[in-house]
């Protein structure tokens, strides 16, 4: 029997049972779609994360703080201990000029009086408290360890918009799932310039302003619970410094910046850049062994997702095996007739294997296409979220290797699932098969 004849007989057998064939194909397609979508999403996520690590960004960042020199360190010019290392523009330029530094983002902070809206649990108005307001360049927020939880980031040039952290939510008694409830509320902030005594009370002299909470963030740029555009904080800091005298009780930082966030040219250069900054005389902090940890976690996620898809595909293969066994039982007489007219065992086996292969191939193709469309739909949802966070969108490339693996895998599994029914059909004695009812 030629292959063309076997294919024709297999097609005829499938046409006799269109309902069963369609259901079997749909089962394979569903499993293949699941496998394709999971592999595509996992692969894209891994590529995106590793690319971010490779090119730099918050994951390849180093926090720099002002630090006093080591007691044993001396100034090379006059052989005396050097002064404390302030973070000013000269320090920023010096660090930016280091090799393998991609970007340096300055961070400023100032101590302010804060009055949260609403009342305490006992009904009394909320009392003022002091906290650091952290100022950053909002246009470069994607380079900073700042993640939007709810709402939006303040406008870069706004003087009346701020974002608050989860610490602020705890202070005002709001749970994280209800973070959106603080959006649109107003804070009262005061830049402290000094203290004055009135009726035996110490009252801070401040410049008050009302600002609107437009977002809730998780941030590690500074220690404060309020994040604001850098210009807003600079103005407050300048007003505070303008009233400082030698005997002032208000502590004012001597550094231009409270910190710097240095982005290295890739995660592999973080250690080297950190050593160079430390050698200059500044304290640094950065996550260690981040790339290895991220790769391990991504690999675990990929293994789990692939296993889920593979299990679904194996279940579909069992369905093919069950369908083929049913076909053998139904076509016992036909098998006997073919053997009676000279059909060999391998010819019978070939017919059933072709049927199983066709079911797996068609289901695999449909599943691969469907899985790709599902991955694109998921990618659209993810891009919408990333755009809200002010982050770059992901580019979902056509995963040709994944599609080929899915189709080939579905076909091979179908052939393996059809092997037992095909061997059973081939072993049927012609006399028993012809006489079967």
Architecture overview:
α2 runs antiparallel to α10, α7 runs antiparallel to α9 and α7 runs parallel beside α10. About 4% of the residues have low confidence. The chain has 2 domains: 196 residues, no CATH class; 208 residues, no CATH class. The longest helix is centred in the last third of the chain and has 44 residues. It starts with a helix and ends with a helix. The chain has 437 residues and is α+β, with helices and mostly antiparallel strands. Strands 2-3-8-5-7-6 form a 6-stranded mixed barrel.
Major sheet description: 6 strands, mixed, barrel
Helix segment tally: 11
Strand order of the largest sheet: 2-3-8-5-7-6
Strand content: 15-25%
Helical coverage, percent range: 40-55%
Let me know the number of strands: 10
Give Rg in angstroms: 34 Å
Summarize the structure.
The chain is an alpha+beta fold and 437 residues long. The chain has helices at 3-16, 18-55, 89-96, 166-171, 230-242, 270-280, 290-330, 332-340, 345-388, 400-426, 430-435, and strands at 61-65, 101-115, 129-136, 146-151, 161-165, 186-198, 201-219, 226-229, 259-264, 283-285.
């Amino acid at each position: 029997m030629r292959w063309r004849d076997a294919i024709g007989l297999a097609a005829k057998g499938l046409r006799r049972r269109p309902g069963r064939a369609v259901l079997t194909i749909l089962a394979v397609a569903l499993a293949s779609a699941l496998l394709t979508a999971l592999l595509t999403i996992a692969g894209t996520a891994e590529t995106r994360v590793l690319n971010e690590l490779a090119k730099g960004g918050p994951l390849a960042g180093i926090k720099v703080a002002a630090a006093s020199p080591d007691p044993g360190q001396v100034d090379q010019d006059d052989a005396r201990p050097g002064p404390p290392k302030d973070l000013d523009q000269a320090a920023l330029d010096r660090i930016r000029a280091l090799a393998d530094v991609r970007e340096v983002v300055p961070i400023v902070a100032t101590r302010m009086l804060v009055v949260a809206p609403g009342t305490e649990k006992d009904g009394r108005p909320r009392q003022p408290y002091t906290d650091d307001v952290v100022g950053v360049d909002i246009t470069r927020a994607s380079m900073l360890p700042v993640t939007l939880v709810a709402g939006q980031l303040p406008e870069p040039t706004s003087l009346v918009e701020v974002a608050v952290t989860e610490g602020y939510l705890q202070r005002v008694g709001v749970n994280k799932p209800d973070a959106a409830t603080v959006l649109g509320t107003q804070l009262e902030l005061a830049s402290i310039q000094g203290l004055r005594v009135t009726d035996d009370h110490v009252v801070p002299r401040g410049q008050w302003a009302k600002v609107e909470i437009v977002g809730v963030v998780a941030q590690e740029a500074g220690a404060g619970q309020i994040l604001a555009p850098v210009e807003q904080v600079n103005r407050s800091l300048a007003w505070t410094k303008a009233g400082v005298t030698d005997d002032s009780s208000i502590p004012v930082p001597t550094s231009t910046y409270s910190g710097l966030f240095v982005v290295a040219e890739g995660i592999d250069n973080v250690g080297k850049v950190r050593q160079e900054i430390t050698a200059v005389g500044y304290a640094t902090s950065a996550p260690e062994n981040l790339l290895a940890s991220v790769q391990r976690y991504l690999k675990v996620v990929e293994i789990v997702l692939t296993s889920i898809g593979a299990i679904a595909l194996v279940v579909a293969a069992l369905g093919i095996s069950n369908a083929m066994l049913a076909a053998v039982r139904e076509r016992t007489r036909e098998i006997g007739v073919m053997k009676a007219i000279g059909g060999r065992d391998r010819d019978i086996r070939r017919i059933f294997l072709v049927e199983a292969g066709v079911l797996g191939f068609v289901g695999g193709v449909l599943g691969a296409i469907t899985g790709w469309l599902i991955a694109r739909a998921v990618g659209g949802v993810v891009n919408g979220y990333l755009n809200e966070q002010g982050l770059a969108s992901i580019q979902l490339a056509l995963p040709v290797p994944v599609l080929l693996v899915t189709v080939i895998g579905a076909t091979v599994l179908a052939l393996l699932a059809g092997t037992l029914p095909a061997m059973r059909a081939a072993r049927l004695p012609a006399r028993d098969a012809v006489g079967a009812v």
